[in-house]
């Protein structure tokens, strides 16, 4: 069945499939780890048991999501050696150390404190446990730091030298590589997106339980906290997205042309295309709904500023317009919908009806998955818009793939699809099951087995393992 297939296309589909699955879990766990740190900090500060109940409620969900994120991410690293060995060989001297730092710092930090965070509440002091929670939250941020530094270098490569064998070699300054031109914008925009993703997931769970019981104090608190995040962070995220877009225009103008649907150059001001159907064959947007000169006003802060179009770019250097065009609009549309929910919640809060407006709760419930959809759409905009390059302007995707035949790549792709859908469908079902249970007083944390030792090293047996007095006599 793979005789007529393209090995390069299958390799790209495989990586896109696995990274799409993986991305949704870190986007959730980054924000949720910080939310857990806030909840535990509020409990320590105020002494209110409600915060501890919410901490334990979301800790169980975090444990499952974190585990699925780790498992889904391991596969991606192997693909660099199997499907993208040429890319690994050419860029390894630059991106290899950065990815190693991610393991040596973030992964070890998370692994070192995760067990204390999950199971140490009754075994260590409150302050030490809070420190462990903060370290896990910090580890998720450090992980995002290094991974986004790698990705950003691929988007805006600087600080490198080309060796005699064609490899990218680090220049005299690693700081130039790590803090490449697009990295600060991408880091802040992505991490903020993770916080919003978590906020709307938490808000949806709170809204679900408020629709069932408006008097549930735990649901009220989580919904209120989530709506504060939506109201305050959504407008900030829109601003950050605009700044990221201006940075992209400076360093990757062709990507912006695809995002805006500008097949033609506009010397006297470019329109903002709201909707339309990209026609790659005719090089135009069919049925376009546009606002004259607004794109130039947004991107250049001048309605008459000229903007280039894809007619100024060789066809071989153009990204696929349709997926970039639509993914960008999905991301932006959901961003403004999040802002709308945040403003709606502020109105309800101002009128003292935050827990009574059922339509607000229904809206928040519908918007629960919006963050996940938005981050995937943003990823598609960034990565598909970078095509036809893996290292922008320097190394083409077609030059990066391993010399494999289509049947080999296709077989592994089918295997990934089957395994991922079976495993992660069960994991997702379990997370939704946990979310469907209303939080309550005296919430229990993650369960441990009956044979778990009470000491970390397992030297001192638990009470159930100790012999009764006189039993050895």
UniProtKB/TrEMBL annotation:
Report the GO terms under cellular component.
cytochrome complex; plasma membrane
Keywords, alphabetical:
Cell membrane, Electron transport, Heme, Iron, Membrane, Metal-binding, Transmembrane, Transmembrane helix, Transport
Q: Does the keyword Flavoprotein apply?
A: no
Start-end of Polar residues biased regions: 463-473
User: Annotated region Disordered: where?
Assistant: 442-473
Keyword Protein biosynthesis present in the record's keywords: the answer is no
UniProt record, GO biological process: aerobic electron transport chain
Q: Name one Pfam family in it.
A: Cyt_bd_oxida_I
GO function terms (MF aspect): electron transfer activity; heme binding; metal ion binding; oxidoreductase activity, acting on diphenols and related substances as donors, oxygen as acceptor
Record-annotated membrane-spanning stretches:
20-45, 57-78, 98-121, 128-148, 192-211, 223-240, 324-347, 359-380, 409-432
How does the record classify its membrane topology? Answer: Multi-pass membrane protein
Q: Where in the cell is it found?
A: Cell inner membrane; Cell membrane
Similarity comment text for this entry:
Belongs to the cytochrome ubiquinol oxidase subunit 1 family.
Q: What name does this protein carry?
A: Cytochrome ubiquinol oxidase subunit I
Q: Which organism is it from?
A: Novosphingobium aureum
